[in-house]
């Protein structure tokens, strides 16, 4: 990633936080006002106040110097003195139910926003690759399941009984990714490329439970779109360039084997080595109507702890696409279903991480999120809205975790108070706050470590 892209990623990350955090705080603010709580300040950003004005209800609306968050300060949440005539407006003097409603309103606002953003993407429609598969890599789950080039995946199921239609390859990869993250298998309903000859196969994605979501995992699963075996970008000074390959060349055969599609070619190149020695490949290439023979010796690189061969070229043409869009009601239902599926998957995945059945590398930090923000923004409005929806949903779920210092931790206090009839003591709150701060710091350090590891190529 060059400097310009890094700056763009940082900018779009700040834009995303500048949208999502104020929405979260707005949820707290609106319900607090509805419950008669006096809100002292609604700030977008932290730190020194750059601009502010006081509204009719006495709330100071402010923009602060650090644009990476925000907060709502309510009367009675701290140790400040409360005037006698304002005691009824103090947060701590409200009922348990009202306090819980104010706290849950922040994550709820993010959840509603996620539904609307997912729905907006569905309403706008987008061009997505058709779920017609290319040749799966050798030994991948797709190959072991009996999938072939040209197979069209029409539906998915977790149990082989209840099926959900697959609109595109994006839908398929999302469903398979959820199954892998949760340590479950997934059934696929498959036809040929013309929609004939339906059959059912099972991907044993539970075998990859706990693996990090990276390029190696996607290769091990083996679901890629059908694409022509045409050479794309040829990296200057790379092995492909040394062999004389040019952009636009169509590879007809490799080592005497006919090349049906890009997936077959890509896998044949990856396996072109004997231990630590690359194997020279004999290529028949069509260029400008002429067939020519070339010899190419790939370079060996490390890929997730294993050696693979590369010619340092792009492979494949743009796959067949279709327009995926929804009507008004269907789009809302689709958005609600997407948000629910994401919430359930996130909670289950966190549970699996805690018991050691999933990798802690699933945690992503600000560097990875910023990278995704930049990539999605460069891809267009629809991908960026989809990114915002996913981050908004993540904020909703993570804030509801029962950890002190998060909204979920406060809800646990109120649950205890509602069941016991007495609030959590100040001493216990202080100890729990310290423990919660420590856990959050460890989680942030782990996420940042994962970010650095990804950028450094450690995993």
From TrEMBL:
<keyword id="KW-1133">Transmembrane helix</keyword>
<dbReference type="InterPro" id="IPR036034">
    <property type="entry name" value="PDZ_sf"/>
</dbReference>
<feature type="transmembrane region" description="Helical">
    <location>
        <begin position="6"/>
        <end position="23"/>
    </location>
</feature>
<keyword id="KW-0812">Transmembrane</keyword>
<keyword id="KW-0862">Zinc</keyword>
<dbReference type="GO" id="GO:0008237">
    <property type="term" value="F:metallopeptidase activity"/>
</dbReference>
<dbReference type="InterPro" id="IPR041489">
    <property type="entry name" value="PDZ_6"/>
</dbReference>
<comment type="similarity">
    <text>Belongs to the peptidase M50B family.</text>
</comment>
<keyword id="KW-0645">Protease</keyword>
<keyword id="KW-0378">Hydrolase</keyword>
<dbReference type="Pfam" id="PF02163">
    <property type="entry name" value="Peptidase_M50"/>
</dbReference>
<dbReference type="InterPro" id="IPR008915">
    <property type="entry name" value="Peptidase_M50"/>
</dbReference>
<keyword id="KW-0472">Membrane</keyword>
<protein>
    <recommendedName>
        <fullName>Zinc metalloprotease</fullName>
        <ecNumber>3.4.24.-</ecNumber>
    </recommendedName>
</protein>
<keyword id="KW-0479">Metal-binding</keyword>
<feature type="domain" description="PDZ">
    <location>
        <begin position="184"/>
        <end position="289"/>
    </location>
</feature>
<feature type="transmembrane region" description="Helical">
    <location>
        <begin position="100"/>
        <end position="124"/>
    </location>
</feature>
<dbReference type="InterPro" id="IPR004387">
    <property type="entry name" value="Pept_M50_Zn"/>
</dbReference>
<dbReference type="InterPro" id="IPR001478">
    <property type="entry name" value="PDZ"/>
</dbReference>
<keyword id="KW-0482">Metalloprotease</keyword>
<dbReference type="Pfam" id="PF17820">
    <property type="entry name" value="PDZ_6"/>
</dbReference>
């Amino acid at each position: 990633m060059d400097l310009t892209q890094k700056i763009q990623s940082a900018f779009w990350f700040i834009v995303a936080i500048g949208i999502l955090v104020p929405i979260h705080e707005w949820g707290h603010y609106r319900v607090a006002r509805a419950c008669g709580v006096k809100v002292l300040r609604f700030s977008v950003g932290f730190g020194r106040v750059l601009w502010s004005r006081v509204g009719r209800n006495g709330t100071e609306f402010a923009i602060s110097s650090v644009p990476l968050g925000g907060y709502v300060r309510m009367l009675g949440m701290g140790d400040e003195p409360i005037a006698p005539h304002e005691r009824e407006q103090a947060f701590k003097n409200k009922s348990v139910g009202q306090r819980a409603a104010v706290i849950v309103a922040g994550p709820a606002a993010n959840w509603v926003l996620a539904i609307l953003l997912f729905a907006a993407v569905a309403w706008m429609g987008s061009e997505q690759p058709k779920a017609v598969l290319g040749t799966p890599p050798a030994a991948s789950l797709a190959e072991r399941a009996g999938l072939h080039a040209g197979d069209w995946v029409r539906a998915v199921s977790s149990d082989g009984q209840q099926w959900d239609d697959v609109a595109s390859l994006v839908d398929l990869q999302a469903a398979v990714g959820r199954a892998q993250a949760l340590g479950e298998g997934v059934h696929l309903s498959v036809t040929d490329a013309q929609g004939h000859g339906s059959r059912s196969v099972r991907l044993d994605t539970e075998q990859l439970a706990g693996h990090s979501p990276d390029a190696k995992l996607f290769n091990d699963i083996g679901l890629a779109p059908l694409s022509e075996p045409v050479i794309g970008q040829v990296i200057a000074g790379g092995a492909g360039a040394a062999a004389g390959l040019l952009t636009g060349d169509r590879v007809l055969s490799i080592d005497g084997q006919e090349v049906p599609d890009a997936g077959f070619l890509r896998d044949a190149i990856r396996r072109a080595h004997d231990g630590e020695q690359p194997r020279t490949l004999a290529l028949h290439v069509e260029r400008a109507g002429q067939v020519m023979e070339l010899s190419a010796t790939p370079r060996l690189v490390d890929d997730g702890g294993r050696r693979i061969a590369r010619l340092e070229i792009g492979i494949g043409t743009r796959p067949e696409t279709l327009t995926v869009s929804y009507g008004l009601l269907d789009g809302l239902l689709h958005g609600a279903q997407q948000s629910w599926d994401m919430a359930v998957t996130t909670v289950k995945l966190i549970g699996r991480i805690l018991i050691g059945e999933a990798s802690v590398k699933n945690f992503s930090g600000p560097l990875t999120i910023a990278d995704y923000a930049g990539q999605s923004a460069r891809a267009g409005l629809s991908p960026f809205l989809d990114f915002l929806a996913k981050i908004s949903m993540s904020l909703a779920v993570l804030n509801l975790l029962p950890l002190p210092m998060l909204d979920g931790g406060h809800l646990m206090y109120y649950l205890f108070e509602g069941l016991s009839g007495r609030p959590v003591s100040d001493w216990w709150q202080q100890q729990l706050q310290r423990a919660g701060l420590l856990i959050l710091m460890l989680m942030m350090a782990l996420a940042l470590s994962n970010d650095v590891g990804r950028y450094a190529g450690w995993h």
